[in-house]
From TrEMBL:
Protein name per the record: ABC transporter ATP-binding protein
Spans through the membrane: 22-47, 67-84, 141-162, 168-189, 262-286
Location of this chain's protein in the cell: Cell membrane
Domain ABC transporter span(s) in chain numbering: 340-573
Topological category with respect to the lipid bilayer: Multi-pass membrane protein
Entries under Pfam families matching the protein: ABC_membrane (PF00664), ABC_tran (PF00005)
InterPro entries: AAA+_ATPase, ABC1_TM_dom, ABC1_TM_sf, ABC_transporter-like_ATP-bd, ABC_transporter-like_CS, P-loop_NTPase, Type_1_exporter
Annotated ABC transmembrane type-1 domain residues: 25-309
Matches recorded under SUPFAM superfamilies: ABC transporter transmembrane region, P-loop containing nucleoside triphosphate hydrolases
């Protein structure tokens, strides 16, 4: 319970929204519950004052006052219930909207490197399922839980006043029952963490399975994956059954101990009646009320599952909120120039060191190409310039200004990107290219597409530039997607261009068209490009050869060939691969 309260308070704090409305709703719910139980005590009170139980004589109109009170209580209960619910709904939704806004804002400020593919399934689950759970808690569960707890407490307060001995008998088993419930809670919480982890891993696998189904089926691996998923489900089932068997036992103990209070009550009442110290009316009241007191407490055990889920969801959301955001620099004006310099840059993913002591300069409007074997750290080197991450050692400057001093919007305004992994959205071609520059006219977008050699294939689409291209542009070929991303970059017209050449994976005609589009794009810009096909960078001003995270060689194409080192080896290897094809 303490975990639940702390988790709820953390959510309230994180949302930055006033919880006044929720508290009002909860207070109204308690008042509503008080109206619901009041008739028992009023009946006891009137009956104990009048015949045959009390000294008074019931007149013909004696029912009028109790009836009026009853009507008043029912009306009050209805009104309080309505107002309580409204306050809880409105307050709960407003708070969770603010909380979700805070999470989205936080996500937006995380370093771009955090959104690696492996995290998308996890993030999607956290941002939908876990936030939805918070919404349910603040709009429904908290009120129901408070009602479950407040009813027994209100009853107990009244019963103590009527007969403390019977009340004591009724309450005597509560501490033991609560201890059993607490034990069950701790047990479920510990098991639940592992179960949730299994769930999250499994949903990540399902996302990956659906995303990669085409490849898996083509390679006849779908069945093997399904077996892997089945094994995961079996693990979850086994884990859940273990948890239910043991945890369910504790809940059963809680219920038995709680209901044992009824037996104790009857025994004490019998003893008191035998000693003539208890009126039959008070005995009747306690017997009637005892079940009403216990019912909500028994219900409270059922909320245990939801409380546990809430605590776990909140933990995951808090972990997300605890992820360090990208430190924003204060400088909002563009740097005075667009030369790039890396100084003693070192970087690693966790314990794995990927870049070591990297220093180089990219002159303004010059083309610097990065080549090297797979896994050498080329993409990482480029991503550091876009602040996907900050270097752990050394610094990177644009126009002489350290990237960390620049506001990220200012930095991104100076950078154009053409990466291998082109992200397209389920909108029209026009909308997708316009992502490059908000507010660009249709004419400007079409002109950029024309320069990027997109016009011909776009015209062939059913509705031309208005054609919707499906989620992530699945209706387009790799080369077409690539050219749309070049059109975007052309439209953005940023002075610095980061290019991850992807022509290796497309056919010769597409390669030619992409090359043509790129030559439009690189003109007059500071360019850093990762090159996979060495012929495309023969004319680069500078070529850096990266190997195992270190710059092994640097120079022009001719000077590197003359050196006869790694670059010359790579060149010869590519020539040898191309030769049979050229000869064919
Ligand atoms: N997000 C990440 N988390 C952990 N390790 C990563 C991540 N991205 C890359 N790596 C690792 O860092 C090393 C360098 O990767 P990087 O993608 O920078 O190399 P690369 O030279 O661009 O390779 P390629 O030419 O195959 O794309 C590799 O060992 C890779 O496994």
């Amino acid at each position: 319970m303490a975990d639940f309260v702390q988790a709820s308070l953390r959510v309230i704090r994180a949302s930055g929204h006033s919880p006044a409305r929720i508290y009002t709703g909860l207070a109204l719910h308690v008042a509503e519950r008080a109206c619901a139980i009041a008739p028992y005590f009023l009946a006891w009170f009137w009956l104990s004052r009048s015949a045959p139980f009390g000294p008074g004589v019931a007149g013909p109109w004696a029912w009028v006052e109790p009836a009026a009170w009853l009507v008043l209580l029912v009306l009050g209960q209805m009104l309080l219930s309505y107002l309580g619910q409204m306050n809880n709904f409105l307050g709960g939704y407003a708070l969770t909207i603010a909380y979700r806004g805070r999470l989205i804002d936080h996500l937006q400020r995380l370093p771009l490197g955090v959104f690696g593919r492996q995290r998308i399934g996890h993030l999607a689950s956290v941002m939908t399922d876990d936030v939805k759970r918070m919404e349910d808690v603040f709009t429904h569960l908290s009120a129901e839980l408070l009602a479950s707890i407040s009813v027994p407490l209100l009853f107990a307060a009244m019963l103590v006043w009527i007969d403390w001995r019977l009340t004591l008998a009724l309450l005597a088993t509560w501490p033991l029952a609560l201890a059993a419930l607490n034990g069950a809670n701790r047990f479920f919480l510990a098991r639940g963490v592992r179960k949730q982890k299994l769930f999250l891993e499994t949903s990540g696998l399902i996302v990956e399975f659906i995303g990669g189904l085409r490849t898996l089926r083509l390679f006849h691996r779908a069945q093997a994956w399904l077996q892997g998923l089945d094994a995961r489900f079996a693990q979850i089932r086994q884990h859940s059954m273990g948890a239910e068997a043991w945890g369910g036992g504790s809940v059963l103990v809680y219920r038995i101990v709680l209901e044992g209070g009824l037996l104790l009550l009857l025994a004490v009442a019998g003893w008191l009646i035998a000693h003539a110290t208890l009126t039959p009316l008070t005995w009747l009241l306690f017997v009637l009320v005892a079940c009403k007191v216990l019912d909500p407490l028994l219900d409270a055990a059922a909320y245990l599952v939801e409380l546990r889920a809430l605590v776990q969801s909140e933990t995951r959301l808090q972990q997300l909120l605890d992820e360090p955001v990208l430190k924003e620099g204060g400088r909002t004006e563009a740097p005075p120039g667009f030369a790039v310099s890396y100084r003693h840059v070192g970087f690693g993913y966790g314990a794995q060191r990927v870049l070591h002591d990297i220093s180089f300069d990219v002159p303004e409007q010059g083309v610097t190409a990065i080549v090297g074997p797979s896994g050498a750290g080329k993409s990482t080197l480029l991503e550091l310039l876009a602040r996907f991450y900050d270097p752990q050692e050394g610094s990177i400057a644009l126009g002489g200004v350290d990237l960390r001093a620049l506001c990220s919007d200012t930095l991104y305004r100076q950078l154009g990107f053409v990466f291998q992994d082109v992200q397209l959205f389920d909108g029209s071609v026009l909308e997708n290219v316009r992502v490059g520059r908000e507010g660009a006219s249709d004419g400007e977008v079409i002109e950029a597409c024309r320069l990027a050699c997109c016009d011909a294939f776009v015209q062939r689409l059913p509705d031309g530039y208005a054609t919707r291209i499906g989620e992530n542009g699945q209706q387009l070929s790799g080369g077409e997607r690539q050219r749309l991303s070049i059109a975007r970059a052309l439209l953005k017209d940023a002075p610095v261009l980061l290019l991850d050449e992807a022509t290796a994976s497309v056919d010769a005609q597409s390669q030619h068209e992409i090359q043509q589009a790129l030559s439009q794009l690189v003109a007059g810009r500071t360019v850093i490009m990762i090159a996979h096909r060495l012929p495309t960078i023969r004319h680069a001003d500078q070529i850096l050869v990266l190997d195992q995270g270190r710059i092994r060689e640097r120079g022009t194409h001719a000077s590197l060939l003359a050196q006869g080192g790694l670059y010359a080896q790579l060149w010869r290897a590519q020539e040898a691969m191309a030769a049979p094809l050229d000869g064919a």
